[in-house]
Amino acid sequence: MKEKRNAFFSAAADVLFWFIGTFLYAFSVQVFVAPNALAAGGVTGIATTVNYLFPVIPTGALIFAINIPLFIISWIVFGKQFIVRTIIATAINSAFVDLIPSFIPAYEGEKLLCALFGGLLCGIGLGLVFRHGATTGGMDIAARLVRLKLPHISTGTMTLLLDFCVILFAGLCYKSVDSILYSVIVVFMSGKAMDYVIAGMGHGRMLMIVSDHPKEITADITKETGRGVSLLPVQGGFTGEEKKMLLCVVRAHEVAKVRKIVKRYDAKPFIIITESSEVLGLGFKDLNETL
Fold it and tell me: What is the Cα–Cα distance from 29 to 146, expressed in whole angstroms?
């Protein structure tokens, strides 16, 4: 009974964030992006451009209509579980896109502000939808399908290429080079904001430390930061000397503390610090929060 209740609340939370995310996305498109002859990329960019050319065609309805063939193909290729959530989220998004202009006026001001805030809100909205197990269809599905034939190209790269084609198409229809340039800002800001929402709270720094005092450093890192440390055997390629490498992941603000700990015991350590786009596990993000 408890498991069913938890599953219900989890599903309800997902739907709530789908509504919030799609509203922010639709708000951005209809208030900042489309009224200023900009393109958000993806199917939405195609739909807003077609609506510009033929105003009688509702943008939201067109977004859903363009996605229908992609839904059918995805159902066959990827299965039911993936596509059902996407159909629901896309339907909500399409409804918001057509409803928002009737009660929220468009902002027709400085285009740079429109591009920045439009992209920011687009990314936050999409990030919330993605983080809660759905997509808004469009180029995300198209990119996955294309990758079946071109697996050496990442999904992110493929999505960017498709978005760039949409931006060029929109720029030609708007007959404006400025629209192309500002639309690139929209897509860039959207991608950055979406990445932060999806994995931002899971960002961390990975440290690989080679020192002559692994035990002492490990003990102090664990005691003073509460982070776990893994000890890996390594061998110097030049000296052939056997040593231990410490591997640990911390928050960005904890890096300085770890460096002080290392310096406490070793004046000449070897340290590699890299950014981790997402960290799952104790002290970071729970695996169940991911898609």
Answer: 26
Q: Which residue range is the domain that position 267 belongs to?
A: 203-289
Q: pLDDT (tens digit, 9 = 90+) per residue, 48-98?
A: 999 999 999 999 999 999 999 888 887 887 667 668 888 888 999 999 999
Q: What is the pLDDT of residues 69-80, one digit of tens each?
A: 888 887 887 667
CATH number at residue 229: 3.30.70.120
Residues 208 and 147 reside in one and the same domain: no
* Cα–chain center distance at 14: 16
136, 110, 109: which is closest to 23 by C-alpha? 136
Tokens, residue 108: 């027709």
Q: Radius of gyration of the chain from Cα atoms?
A: 24
Whether residue 235 is found in the same domain as residue 119: no
CB of 43 closer than 8 Å to CB of 89: no
Domain boundary among 200, 215, 236: 200
The owner of tokens 């102090």 is: 220
Q: Are residues 42 and 182 in the same domain?
A: yes
Which residues are CB-contacts of 107 (< 8 A; sequence separation ≥ 6)?
31, 32, 35, 36, 114
Structure-token match 């509460």, residue found: 226
